[in-house]
Amino acid sequence: MAEGDVVAVLTRDHDKVEELFRHYDQTSSTTTKKQLAVDIILELLRHSAAEEKIVYPTARKIIPNGDEVIEKEIAQQAAAKRTMTALRATKPTDPDFDRLVHELLAMVGEHVWEQEEVWFPQLRQRMPADGLRELAEQVEAMHAASRVQPTAPPAPQPSPQPPGRLLLGAGITIVNRARHLLTALARVLNAVAGFVRRPAVGTCAA
User: Fold this and answer.
1) Which of 58, 82, 150, 203 has CA 20 to 30 A from 182's CA?
2) Which of 4, 5, 10, 30 is CA-nearest to residue 143?
3) What is the rounded distance in angstroms from the CA atom of residue 81 to the CA atom of residue 73?
4) Rounded CA gap, 108 and 110, in Å?
5) ∠ CA(174), CA(180), CA(100), 5° rounding?
């Protein structure tokens, strides 16, 4: 059972990512920064996947100007994914690494403000409590599934999605790690396909 409604679940995601960014700014260790960047990207991938597959389709129908709001969200996420791709191709010792992390931070900050201050309250106001809880359960199930690692090495496959891993240990290339997470993410999406195919929950007027 989800703890709270979908707004609470997504807000906890925001808090977790913002805390990782704070830790990044508090360390001078290249190794630690590299690992924190990995963690940031993983959390953003989990969060954006759940939003795109579960939350956005419902929000389009419920919040005022839903199509316009969600199209803007999708465009922002696409920009963030391009920054993550650039971050993947940059070594942690390169000055551009810090720049890209902070560019990503600015994008996340805008995303968080627009959701928490603008349309999350609208979603709560216009959607029944049981519908909000149902979305929360679907998001948490998708999050849980995304933490299950694949048991076999992934086959190389091109994808427009952002990387899920940066360098993690000697001898492991950036590209191989990106492919690894993309395969894991594909398994996640298959695992929760039953959730995203479910009929939209009911709505009520403000």
Assistant:
1) 58
2) 10
3) 12
4) 5
5) 40
Neighbouring CB atoms inside 10 A of 161's CB total: 16
d(CA 206, CA 193): 31
State both tokens at 91.
Answer: 């070594």
The pLDDT value given to residue 1:
43
Mean pLDDT of 97-101: 97
Closest CA to 45 of 163, 174, 186: 163
Centre a 10 Å sphere on the Cβ of residue 98 and count the other Cβ atoms it contains.
15
Residue identified by tokens 């001898």 is 171
Helix axes 30-50 and 66-88, enclosed angle (nearest 10)? 150
Give me the half-sphere count of Cα atoms (radius 13 Å) on the Cβ side of residue 146.
20
Report the pLDDT value the prediction gives residue 37, as an integer from 0 to 100: 96
